[in-house]
Structures are given as C-alpha cells and as structure tokens.
Amino acid sequence: MYILAIESSCDETGVAILSEKSTDQIEILSEELSSQVKLHELYGGVVPELASREHMKNLPLLLEKALAKSKISLNQITGIGVTRGPGLKGCLMTGLFFGHGLSQVLDVPLVGVNHIEGHLLAPMLDNPELKFPYLCLVVSGGHTEIHLLKGVGDYTLLCRTQDDAAGEAFDKSANLLGINYPGGAMLAALADSVPGSRYKLPKVMRSQEGFSFSGLKTAISLLIKKEYARLQSETTDTESEITNIKGEIAFAIQQAIIQTLIDKLKAAMIQTNINQVAISGGVAANKALRKAVSNINGAKTFFPLPSHSTDNAAMIAYVAYLRLKRGESLPLDAPVLPRWPVETLNSV
Ligand code: KG4
Ligand code: ZN
User: How far is the CA of 7 from the centre of ligand 2 (A)?
Assistant: First the structure.
C-alpha cells in the first residue's frame, strides 16, 4: 500500500508518500515542502490568490521529487489523500483538483483529509507508542484548541480560542516589536536569547470559557510605548538598551502565551482524568512551550517532530492511510470545506 498525500491549505505546499510495511506498520518514504513565506512577507500576510498560484506551480514539481526520493513510480500509488479543509478556498481547490486528476488517471481512491485532524494525529505518527485516549492541544496560525481523542474520528472539543489563535498572537506581537511576518519563530528565538525579563504582562488574556489572546496585543503596545518614551527621556546607551528591552519583552510575551496554554491543558487533564498529553501545530515547534508541557505534573507528554508540528504532508498521509483503510473515499463532486470544525468528523 502506497499513499500519496497533498497539503495546500494555506501557504505551504506539501507532498508526501507513505508506505505500509506490514499491518499497522507504516513509514514515510518521502516528504517535500515548499514554503511561501518569502513571497507573502512582502504583504505582511498570506495573499490567497498568490498562494493558490504557487501551489499550482509547485505541486507537480514536488510530486516528481517525492517520487524520485521514495524510489517508487506513480503507478504504484494505491490511494491518495488531499487536505479538503479548513483553509483558504482557492488553495484547497488547487490541491483537491490535482489529487482528483491523479486518482482518475491512476484509478485509485481519494480521501479528503481534515487539516486539523492531521495536526491531532501527528503526535501518533511520530510516537507509535502513543495510543488513544489522549489530549491534544493544536496551536497554529489559525487554530488554538484542545481535544480529547478517543479513536480515529472520535474527537471531543474541550476548549477553543474565542479570538486570536496562539500563532496569531505570536505573529502580531512580533510585528509590534518590528519583526516581519510571520514572526512567531523569530520572536521565540529572541525570547530564548535572554535569561529572563523585568516585565510581566497582565493576565488579561485568560478567559473562563476558552482561550482569549486579544487583550495581549493592547498590553504589549502599551508596554512598548511606555518603554520607548522612558528611553527618550533618559541619557542611557539607547541602542543597547533597545536590544535588551526587545529581548525581555519577547520573553514576557512568550511566557504569557505559554502560561495560558499550560493552564488550559492542566484544566483539561483534571476535567477528563487523562494524563497523556500531546501538542501539535506550528507553535508546537516552540522550544519553551515543549519544555513547559514536559514539566506539567503527572503528564505523559508526546510531541511530533518539529517538521511535523508545522504544516506538512506527512500528517495528511497518515490520516489518509487510516481513513482509506476504513474504506472511505471522496466523490468527484464533493466541494472543499474552508470551514470544517474537526469535531464534526464524529458524525461521518
Ligand atoms: O501549523 P502552522 O505551520 O500553519 C497553520 O496551519 O497556521 O502554524 C503556523 C504558525 C505561525 O503563526 C507561526 O508564527 C507559528 O506557527 N510558529 C511559531 C514557531 N514556529 C512557528 N510560534 C512560536 N514559536 C515557534 N518556534
Ligand atoms: Zn496547520
């Protein structure tokens, strides 16, 4: 069994090939990724039209590379998985049409994969010892939510952001510090370069119901204004003090976001009485977050590889494998689903 997977929901084009070595024993033979960060950086965010065109250009090239690396030929592919949603409509359509075209030519089934399900199951892909049930915090540029996973397609939403996602909070905060889009990873690197911070951001981003990060941006811009005004009124070595302040503010921002995520994970553990905890999504690549999650008292923690935390096609291949084995397939006229809450999969 060889599964070809396609990811094109946002600004990364991904192609991966998975092989089933024996029953339930799988291997990712190859995975290719083309990031569009440089292209969208110019505009301070993802431009959907440009992203779709890039996917269209990149998909055939990445497919060729992935096949060459996996040392199999196209006609050995036995099933195809494509991200069907959530994501940008044009981007999703590019991937789905590409996948459908291949499935027709090769006469193999195609399944539509939920991108968030990909993130939820990525910890299992990289930690075969992880079994259901477990809690998974998905922290990406568009999503921040904790689910209880009891089986494939059996996901209970425990907590979701009510405004910004954690990745968005990182990116918007980075922007306020003068770091270019997407900025999350660079803010993290800046935060990790200092030993601590004189600043502590207020806990305005805590909410009872779900996550809420909207107050963080206001608190940060006020802090930055106050500190810059102070510097102007003092006769210190401004250049080096600005560098110190930036690092320490980045540290405080990272701490504030992580603390919120940890508090909610702890609450989810108590609510469900489950101690297996995984994290996934772009922000799960954050080293300080990984450390904080590892330190949660009583938790057994699981992380995907950093390259499977951010968007990638290997996680899509894994979900496609599980779902194709259950006999699922997507009819030709099925539309993409730009909004597709992962918990609605339960009823499929
Ligand atoms: O899952 P992902 O690759 O794409 C989406 O589906 O959104 O997540 C991207 C998000 C961006 O907001 C990016 O800034 C953030 O993940 N991110 C990070 C780090 N690496 C990526 N945030 C904090 N620390 C990092 N090391
Ligand atoms: Zn994602």
Answer: 10
